[in-house]
Amino acid sequence: MTDEADERTRELARHHAAVRDRLEAAIAAAGRSPGSVELLVVTKFFPADDVRRLIHLGVREFGESREPEASRKLAELGDRPAGTVFDMIGTVQSKKAGTVAGWARTVHSVDRDKLVDALSRGATAALDAGARTDPLGVLLQVSLDGDPHRGGVLVEDLPELANRVVAEPGLTLRGLMVIAPLDGTADRWMARTAEIREGFLRDHPEADELSAGMSGDLEAAVAHGSTCVRVGTAIMGPRPLISH
Ligand SMILES: *Cc1c(COP(=O)(O)O)cnc(C)c1O
Q1: Can you tell me the distance from the alpha carbon of 173 to that of 162, in angstroms, rounded to the nearest whole number?
Q2: What is the distance in A from the centroid of ligand 1 to the CA of 129?
Q3: Which of 24, 62, 65, 118 has the most CB atoms lying inside 10 A of its own CB?
Q4: If you count DSSP H runs as helices and E runs as strands, how many of each does the chain have, helices first?
């Protein structure tokens, strides 16, 4: 299945190289330093074999968006090279927070008090048990359009939530995350993101990561300061319709 020269591996290699080229071009166009934006490959809905193929191609940073899919995939994957990391980028139910705290480097989608508490408990337990060596990274997902159904903390509630994360010993506040709403242009939403981030950085200068940009809007995100793009479709192909 994971023959290193199989057709799927070649396809992933081609797509990954094309996205790297797009990313480097966007970084250069923005006058930023090469390598200043992490490419997180989003493998949700795709099997552990694809993760293996990507590891073979040198990919080390992955994003997953659903539990228990992520935990199952990691178990199936087994041993992996040192430095391979998985981030949680999707909505986390509080009751799954303990599990996520066991495997994630960083959770990109933290948007409420209850989840902060649950992740902190989970991360502290994982640290005590030796299941992780560093505190769990936290990115606060900000709602750009104020629509409460789509996840994300409202801009006016961001300072309080940030202070709450800072107070938790199991967590490290690393920055912000956004998903651009579909209406309007990505450029406008990413410009708005940059504005919100400027205010946030005054209070939390060390939390300077910005997870923004996906397959369709990574250029706009990089132009406005993204430090991590989360790319699924452009590398993996269309997501399968079946859920597993
Ligand atoms: C699936 C997903 C992505 C990747 O989106 P693509 O458009 O497939 O690149 C990025 N971020 C989040 C939160 C996701 O759930």
Answers
A1: 7
A2: 32
A3: 62
A4: 9, 8
Which of 184, 189, 237, 238 is closest to 210 using CA atoms? 189
**H or E element that contains 54:** helix 48-56
The predicted pLDDT at position 1 comes to: 52
Q: Give distance in angstroms: CA of 210 to centre of ligand 1.
A: 15
Q: Selecting from 3.20.20.10, 3.40.50.2300, 3.30.565.10, 3.30.70.260, what CATH number does the domain 3-235 have?
A: 3.20.20.10
pLDDT-flagged residues of the chain (< 50): 244
Task: Please tell me the total number of residues recorded for the chain in this structure.
Answer: 244
pLDDT for 150 equals 86
Residues 6+ apart with CB under 8 A from 187: 220, 223, 224
Calpha distance 222→232 (Å, rounded): 17
What pLDDT does 223 receive?
98
Q: Which residues line ligand 1 (CB under 6 A)?
A: 42, 44, 65, 89-90, 179, 214-216, 230-234
CA of 39 to the centre of ligand 1 (A): 12
pTM: 0.96
Tokens 């606060």: give the residue: 140
Give the closest residue (by CA) to ligand 1 atom 11. 230
